[in-house]
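Researcher: Please predict.
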Amino acid sequence: MGDKTNIQTVYPSNKFRFIDGLVLLVFISTAFLGLYLFRQDLMRTFEIRDVEPAGIITLRNNVVQRRHADRVLWDRIFVNSFVYPGDLIRVAEISSANVDIAANDLFLNENTLIRIEGGMDSSGSFRVELQQGNISVKSGVDSSGILLNLMGNQIQTRAGTQLDVEANEEGINLQVNEGNVEFKPEGQDKAIEITEGSMVAFDSNGRELFLPSVSVRKPVQNARYLNDDPQEMYLVKFEWSRLNIDEAAPLRLEIASDVDYKEIISVVEGLENEAEAAFDIGQWYWRLVSDSTVLRKGWFNIIDSSGPILLSPVPNTAFRYQNDLPQLRFQWEKIDWAGSYIIEISKESDFRNPFIKKQINANSFITSEIGQGTWHWRVKPVFTSAFIGAASFSDDESFTIEQTNDPKASAVFIPSDAIRKARAAVAGIVRGRNPSVSVTSIKPEEAVRPARGQEYTIRPGDTLGRIAREHYGDPMLWSIIVEANNIRNPDLIYPGQVYIIP
């Protein structure tokens, strides 16, 4: 027989090891540090409410964040958010933001970081530091300008000034498109005046560079044009002055539909100092080129500012009531870039004396103040001052409100021709837009509400439009369910609620 091998089982010791205590200490310290930082951040949030804001965010695209200098956490920032002295604002890749500071519009391009310094200087100008990236500044005619700190160099704008500034590891670049600015290089006491159509550039060591370029007066960098007649192309004018370029050298304007200029849709050759081109609705990219050198590039948006498609009430709908006035929900197409909407409801088709005229942020409006009669309504999108151009009202639609003593009368009656027209509008056929709601077929006789129907229990994820599509084949008939159940807010329904489906 072979030798027996004794195997000894080793059990873990019950003694508390030093390494265990160290890990526990680190964990507890991290937790306390997190709680402390959260408390400091929360207290700063309360304190900042007593501070006068420096400005407001008027536009935001994709990821834009804000952090106060005394805080640790970055916050997402939204349109109409206030910004305060000491705030850092950063814009991520493929993102942008527009900040209004004391009647000065600052457009922050992607990968940009600025800090709003501690309030105004002696001249009444807010101080803003560009730490990296690219910004465009437009000082209003009633503003005191902005004092920009650009890596130690100071730029004082004036009323009516428009300029573009870029700062990166290679240096800084300043172009003045309109008006004049005072530029004080780092370490110098005397400021120099930079006039319209001029540029200054310095490398990372502070040496001035003389680069071939152009100063573009039109279009404004990152412009947003409003086209209230989308059936017509929008004409954009380009104007520039040459910097360190032979006046006889021909320039080329390239226009693309993508930021990488892989989809160049138009090229204009042999240009001197101006050009013009017509554009459809959308975002467009342009660049001016001399031989193979890109002198200047930018982008702009052409935005449809005509009135939105009116979705509900369906045109020529008749609403009937016995005692209390019906609650009506008006809904219309959401317009990109619009900050708010103006809705008008009037008995006159010319709206000379509207019964209701309100400016609201949402693309819907609920009221129970409208009495008997035939009514007209229309909606106009509202854009901020950062947009160039005007907006117009939608085509008006009408509906009727009637009082009845018949308890079996339908609360809502939608004529069959109105259903077809509404379906065409929602599908984008009328205006050539992409459909915002999928509409299926419905028989005209199904649009008339019977006196009573089956019960339906709301499930998680339900909406009135989804329920209407399921029972009637058309999501636009959600208003029948609203009227039958006297739902005060169609956007607030909860699982477990039971409604009558006529």
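Model: The chain is about 10% helix and 40% strand.
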